[in-house]
Amino acid sequence: MPATTIHFVRHGKVYNPDHLLYERLPDFHLSEQGARMAAATARFMALNPATQAVVAVYASPLERAQETAQIIADGMNQMRKSQGRKPLELMSDERLIEAGNEFRGQRKDRWPLMALQPANWSLMSNLMEPSWGESYRAIAERMRDFAYEQVERYPGQQIIAVSHESPIWAFRRLLETGKPEHNMLLRHTALASVTSITFDVESKNVLGITYANPASGVQ
Known about the structure:
alpha/beta; Rossmann fold; six-stranded mixed sheet; 6 strands; about 35% helix; globular
Protein backbone atom coordinates (compact mmCIF):
# COMPACT_ATOMS: atom_id res chain seq x y z
CA MET A 1 0.00 0.00 0.00
CA PRO A 2 1.94 3.11 -1.19
CA ALA A 3 1.81 6.15 1.07
CA THR A 4 2.82 9.77 0.62
CA THR A 5 4.05 11.90 3.52
CA ILE A 6 3.82 15.69 3.53
CA HIS A 7 5.94 17.48 6.12
CA PHE A 8 4.13 20.75 6.87
CA VAL A 9 6.66 23.19 8.32
CA ARG A 10 5.75 26.47 9.96
CA HIS A 11 8.09 29.35 9.08
CA GLY A 12 10.68 30.64 11.55
CA LYS A 13 10.44 33.76 13.70
CA VAL A 14 9.81 37.02 11.83
CA TYR A 15 11.61 40.34 12.27
CA ASN A 16 8.75 42.51 13.52
CA PRO A 17 10.01 45.35 15.77
CA ASP A 18 6.70 47.21 15.58
CA HIS A 19 4.75 44.13 16.75
CA LEU A 20 2.27 44.29 13.90
CA LEU A 21 -0.29 41.71 12.85
CA TYR A 22 1.42 41.18 9.51
CA GLU A 23 -0.70 38.31 8.17
CA ARG A 24 -0.42 38.62 4.34
CA LEU A 25 1.38 41.97 4.30
CA PRO A 26 4.57 41.98 2.19
CA ASP A 27 8.15 42.59 3.35
CA PHE A 28 8.09 40.65 6.60
CA HIS A 29 11.23 38.56 6.64
CA LEU A 30 12.85 36.07 8.99
CA SER A 31 14.75 37.51 11.90
CA GLU A 32 18.26 36.24 12.64
CA GLN A 33 16.72 33.92 15.20
CA GLY A 34 14.15 32.80 12.63
CA ALA A 35 16.91 31.91 10.19
CA ARG A 36 18.62 29.86 12.89
CA MET A 37 15.32 28.12 13.58
CA ALA A 38 14.96 27.20 9.93
CA ALA A 39 18.54 25.93 9.89
CA ALA A 40 17.84 23.74 12.93
CA THR A 41 14.82 22.26 11.19
CA ALA A 42 16.89 21.73 8.04
CA ARG A 43 19.48 19.79 10.03
CA PHE A 44 16.77 17.73 11.70
CA MET A 45 15.22 16.79 8.38
CA ALA A 46 18.51 16.13 6.60
CA LEU A 47 19.83 13.83 9.33
CA ASN A 48 16.62 12.03 10.22
CA PRO A 49 16.15 8.81 8.17
CA ALA A 50 12.40 9.33 8.41
CA THR A 51 12.55 12.68 6.59
CA GLN A 52 15.69 12.74 4.43
CA ALA A 53 14.01 11.06 1.45
CA VAL A 54 12.15 14.27 0.52
CA VAL A 55 11.78 14.81 -3.25
CA ALA A 56 10.16 18.28 -3.41
CA VAL A 57 9.90 21.50 -1.40
CA TYR A 58 6.90 23.83 -1.62
CA ALA A 59 6.22 27.10 0.20
CA SER A 60 3.67 29.82 0.69
CA PRO A 61 4.52 32.84 -1.50
CA LEU A 62 5.07 35.08 1.55
CA GLU A 63 8.69 36.04 2.23
CA ARG A 64 9.03 34.41 5.64
CA ALA A 65 7.87 31.07 4.27
CA GLN A 66 10.02 31.35 1.15
CA GLU A 67 13.10 32.11 3.24
CA THR A 68 12.42 29.24 5.63
CA ALA A 69 11.90 26.85 2.74
CA GLN A 70 15.08 27.98 0.99
CA ILE A 71 17.16 27.42 4.12
CA ILE A 72 15.65 23.94 4.49
CA ALA A 73 16.19 23.12 0.82
CA ASP A 74 19.81 24.30 1.03
CA GLY A 75 20.38 22.13 4.10
CA MET A 76 18.82 19.10 2.44
CA ASN A 77 20.83 19.73 -0.72
CA GLN A 78 24.15 19.57 1.12
CA MET A 79 23.31 15.99 2.03
CA ARG A 80 21.96 15.21 -1.42
CA LYS A 81 25.12 16.55 -3.09
CA SER A 82 27.28 14.20 -1.02
CA GLN A 83 25.07 11.35 -2.22
CA GLY A 84 25.21 12.40 -5.86
CA ARG A 85 21.48 13.17 -5.91
CA LYS A 86 19.69 15.91 -7.83
CA PRO A 87 19.22 19.10 -5.75
CA LEU A 88 15.79 20.09 -4.54
CA GLU A 89 14.22 23.19 -6.05
CA LEU A 90 11.84 25.49 -4.22
CA MET A 91 8.32 25.80 -5.64
CA SER A 92 5.52 28.15 -4.54
CA ASP A 93 1.84 27.40 -4.05
CA GLU A 94 -0.79 30.02 -3.19
CA ARG A 95 -2.85 27.46 -1.27
CA LEU A 96 -0.21 27.42 1.47
CA ILE A 97 -0.57 31.15 2.16
CA GLU A 98 -1.44 32.69 5.52
CA ALA A 99 -5.10 33.31 6.39
CA GLY A 100 -6.70 36.59 5.44
CA ASN A 101 -7.32 38.90 8.43
CA GLU A 102 -9.16 42.22 8.54
CA PHE A 103 -7.00 43.39 11.46
CA ARG A 104 -3.73 43.13 9.49
CA GLY A 105 -1.40 46.06 9.98
CA GLN A 106 -2.60 46.73 13.54
CA ARG A 107 -0.29 46.46 16.52
CA LYS A 108 -0.70 43.16 18.35
CA ASP A 109 -1.13 44.87 21.71
CA ARG A 110 -3.92 47.08 20.32
CA TRP A 111 -5.86 44.23 18.73
CA PRO A 112 -8.17 43.74 21.76
CA LEU A 113 -9.01 47.45 21.74
CA MET A 114 -9.75 47.34 18.02
CA ALA A 115 -12.07 44.42 18.60
CA LEU A 116 -14.05 46.41 21.17
CA GLN A 117 -14.75 49.32 18.84
CA PRO A 118 -18.40 49.30 17.67
CA ALA A 119 -17.33 49.54 14.02
CA ASN A 120 -15.56 46.18 14.41
CA TRP A 121 -18.20 44.30 16.36
CA SER A 122 -19.43 42.48 13.26
CA LEU A 123 -15.91 41.13 12.76
CA MET A 124 -15.99 39.60 16.25
CA SER A 125 -19.38 37.90 15.98
CA ASN A 126 -17.92 34.38 15.76
CA LEU A 127 -14.58 33.63 17.41
CA MET A 128 -14.53 30.03 16.20
CA GLU A 129 -15.17 30.62 12.49
CA PRO A 130 -13.49 33.21 12.68
CA SER A 131 -15.53 36.15 11.46
CA TRP A 132 -12.63 38.61 11.11
CA GLY A 133 -11.14 37.01 8.02
CA GLU A 134 -10.90 33.84 5.99
CA SER A 135 -12.80 31.04 7.69
CA TYR A 136 -10.94 28.07 9.15
CA ARG A 137 -12.95 25.79 6.88
CA ALA A 138 -11.89 27.67 3.75
CA ILE A 139 -8.27 27.56 4.95
CA ALA A 140 -8.39 23.84 5.71
CA GLU A 141 -10.07 22.99 2.42
CA ARG A 142 -7.46 24.79 0.29
CA MET A 143 -4.74 23.01 2.28
CA ARG A 144 -6.57 19.72 1.69
CA ASP A 145 -6.72 20.43 -2.05
CA PHE A 146 -2.99 21.05 -2.06
CA ALA A 147 -2.28 17.89 -0.08
CA TYR A 148 -4.44 15.59 -2.17
CA GLU A 149 -2.89 16.92 -5.37
CA GLN A 150 0.61 16.20 -4.05
CA VAL A 151 -0.36 12.72 -2.87
CA GLU A 152 -1.25 11.90 -6.47
CA ARG A 153 1.78 13.69 -7.89
CA TYR A 154 4.29 12.01 -5.57
CA PRO A 155 2.88 8.55 -4.83
CA GLY A 156 4.90 6.72 -2.19
CA GLN A 157 7.25 9.67 -1.64
CA GLN A 158 7.80 12.58 0.75
CA ILE A 159 7.63 16.34 0.27
CA ILE A 160 8.02 19.47 2.41
CA ALA A 161 5.43 22.25 2.46
CA VAL A 162 6.30 25.44 4.36
CA SER A 163 3.21 27.31 5.49
CA HIS A 164 1.82 29.19 8.50
CA GLU A 165 0.38 28.42 11.91
CA SER A 166 -3.32 28.82 11.10
CA PRO A 167 -3.36 26.81 7.84
CA ILE A 168 -1.35 23.93 9.28
CA TRP A 169 -3.44 23.64 12.43
CA ALA A 170 -6.82 24.14 10.71
CA PHE A 171 -5.96 21.36 8.24
CA ARG A 172 -4.83 19.03 10.99
CA ARG A 173 -8.03 19.72 12.91
CA LEU A 174 -10.08 18.95 9.81
CA LEU A 175 -8.32 15.62 9.35
CA GLU A 176 -8.50 14.60 13.00
CA THR A 177 -11.96 15.83 13.96
CA GLY A 178 -13.76 16.74 10.74
CA LYS A 179 -14.10 20.30 12.05
CA PRO A 180 -11.35 22.85 11.37
CA GLU A 181 -12.86 25.44 13.74
CA HIS A 182 -10.76 25.90 16.88
CA ASN A 183 -9.50 28.18 19.64
CA MET A 184 -6.46 29.98 18.21
CA LEU A 185 -4.81 30.00 21.66
CA LEU A 186 -4.66 26.20 21.74
CA ARG A 187 -2.71 25.53 18.55
CA HIS A 188 0.17 23.07 18.68
CA THR A 189 2.30 24.46 15.86
CA ALA A 190 5.52 26.08 17.12
CA LEU A 191 7.78 28.19 14.94
CA ALA A 192 9.77 26.04 12.48
CA SER A 193 7.96 22.94 13.74
CA VAL A 194 7.19 19.94 11.53
CA THR A 195 3.73 18.38 11.29
CA SER A 196 4.09 15.23 9.19
CA ILE A 197 0.95 13.72 7.68
CA THR A 198 1.03 10.39 5.86
CA PHE A 199 -1.72 9.59 3.36
CA ASP A 200 -2.70 6.35 1.67
CA VAL A 201 -2.25 7.14 -2.02
CA GLU A 202 -5.35 5.36 -3.27
CA SER A 203 -7.94 6.36 -0.65
CA LYS A 204 -6.33 9.60 0.65
CA ASN A 205 -7.04 8.33 4.15
CA VAL A 206 -4.67 9.53 6.86
CA LEU A 207 -2.35 6.78 8.05
CA GLY A 208 -0.56 8.82 10.68
CA ILE A 209 0.26 12.29 12.01
CA THR A 210 3.46 13.12 13.87
CA TYR A 211 4.82 16.37 15.27
CA ALA A 212 8.37 17.55 15.94
CA ASN A 213 9.76 20.83 17.25
CA PRO A 214 13.46 20.76 16.29
CA ALA A 215 13.95 24.54 16.78
CA SER A 216 12.58 24.68 20.33
CA GLY A 217 15.98 25.48 21.87
CA VAL A 218 17.11 28.05 19.31
CA GLN A 219 17.75 31.51 20.77
